[in-house]
Amino acid sequence: MQIPFGPWRPDPYLIDSQFSAEAKNVLPSSAGWKPFPALASITDAVGSDVRGAFKARTSDGATAIFCGTATKLFKLNGTTWDEVTRLLGGGPSFENYNLPADNYWSFAQQDNILYAVQAGDVPQFIDVDGGANFAPVAGPPPTARYVKAVGNFLFLLDLTSNLGVASTGRIQAAWSGMRDFDFWTYGEKSSDFATFFSGGHVMGMTSKQTGLLIQESAVNRFQRVNDRRTWVFEKVEAAQGTRSPHSIIEHQGTAYYYGTDGFVASSPGAFTNEAGVEWVDEWFKENVNIARIKTVIGALDPTRPRFFWLFPSAGNDSYVLDRIIGFDPPTQQWFHADLDASFVFDAATTATTLEGLGSAPFNYTLETMPISLDSDIWKGGAPRLGGFTSDQKLGFFTGSALAATLRTGSVQLVPGRRAFVNGFRPTTDALNVHGRAAVAERSQDSVLWGSQSSLTAEGLIPMRASGRYHQFECSIPANELWNDIRNIGLTADDLKQHGTQ
């Protein structure tokens, strides 16, 4: 008999051998589950909690990584961080920024210019080809919480000032002149603004010229038109939206985000919930610090269509968030992990020399090198899911495996009767595996877990477990080398009918 570690379904009363009641710190695969890699740092520390980051491209195609803290902006230079904060009065000293609590920097690139926006300061820009410092955008543009590059325009969203326009308290989006991102005179060069009288604050938008603009409690379709209106907006959802602006992930024209009633997907043509999400939504609500729901950070893995949302667990008031929940479209499976990070984003590697690998922060030797010298992680421009560690260093999800835990649902091994199990056999290439079993007499009862045992040389995790309902758990310690785990097996010698009905 084989009992699979199937898709994760966090239901405490799950009685079904096709699902896993727990699958922590693992990623779904077509055959089962595989390791969830740790965030491996590759740079020096920024110096403060990172609250926004962006992968820019120079004119010659090289990668340039920028990040922001509550008061400063930085650019990655090899493995160190150069401060590129705005200058005070044009002199050599820096003038700090004022990022509000639980807010994040928003970045967008048009041509060779990177724009950085947040509610506490006027929009900033820098030339990614060699600019030394950020500086205020000309125009002047309004102050806003978010920025987005769409076609030949730069959009500012959720305005906190309405420069150049009589304030109504309702103007929530504005866009620059066409192909002139320093031009913000409304009514000229196609620059204008949009007012949304219902639906709450604007939270974000997608980047295609026919796309979505998402509010707190509304979803709008927008489209470019060839008349003086420039852009038109049409509400397509009046009861959906998001309070988590940085949770929005764009993939193939569809926006995935944490909505008003759970994780959803919205496209310009239709609106839909992801399959099986009701169980995940309940789990998420029980585990997130709901008071800080705006700090949920979404990121698309650039190496595979897989979505990650970093969030603070219940009671976590730090800017170092500690949980991840994700969705894997190819397998249509959800996953989760315990992992400390302040930010995750679509990143890319920057070139590293052999000399650089032998100095700080790596200090590697040929014996301690954790990744092959042939790996493209050491080459510039290789796409990677990036993040900032709890000690403020940039890293990639290429580290050693996190400690993994998988648990089956409760099953009746002998329908209608009690069963005795003296061990089970995990199907995995991991050599260091621990396991235990739980039993219950009724489906209504909480299961009682036995003690944990280690894998023997014969591939058996020995135990003694007698009951009508059984549940099985495997755990693999952190830093182990393994590739997959699929199921547990019970032979005739491992399982016996025990007693009567």
Any key phrases for this structure?
501 residues; mainly beta; Jelly Rolls; Methylamine Dehydrogenase, Chain H; six-stranded antiparallel beta sheet; five-stranded antiparallel beta sheet; 2 helices; 43% strand
What does this molecule look like?
This protein is mainly β and 501 residues long. The protein folds into 2 domains: 2-36 and 402-497, Jelly Rolls; 40-274, Methylamine Dehydrogenase, Chain H (7 Propeller), CATH 2.130.10. Helix content is 3%, strand content 43%. It contains 2 helices and 41 strands. The strands form 10 sheets. Strands 2, 33, 35, 36, 37 and 39 form a 6-stranded antiparallel beta sheet that branches. Strands 1, 34, 38, 40 and 41 form a 5-stranded antiparallel beta sheet that branches. It is elongated, with a radius of gyration of 26 Å. The two termini are 21 Å apart.
How are the secondary structure elements laid out?
Elements: E1 2-4, E2 20-24, E3 26-28, E4 33-35, E5 40-45, E6 53-57, E7 63-68, E8 73-77, E9 80-83, E10 106-110, E11 113-118, E12 121-127, E13 135-136, E14 144-150, E15 153-159, E16 171-175, E17 192-195, E18 202-205, E19 210-215, E20 219-224, E21 231-237, E22 249-251, E23 254-259, E24 262-266, E25 271-273, H1 277-287, E26 297-300, E27 307-311, E28 321-328, E29 333-341, E30 343-348, H2 354-357, E31 383-388, E32 393-396, E33 404-408, E34 419-428, E35 434-440, E36 448-449, E37 453-454, E38 461-467, E39 469-476, E40 485-489, E41 495-497
Antiparallel strand pairs: 1-40, 2-33, 3-4, 5-32, 6-7, 7-8, 8-9, 10-11, 11-12, 12-13, 14-15, 15-16, 16-17, 18-19, 19-20, 20-21, 22-23, 23-24, 24-25, 26-27, 27-28, 28-29, 30-31, 31-32, 33-39, 34-38, 34-40, 34-41, 35-36, 35-37, 35-39
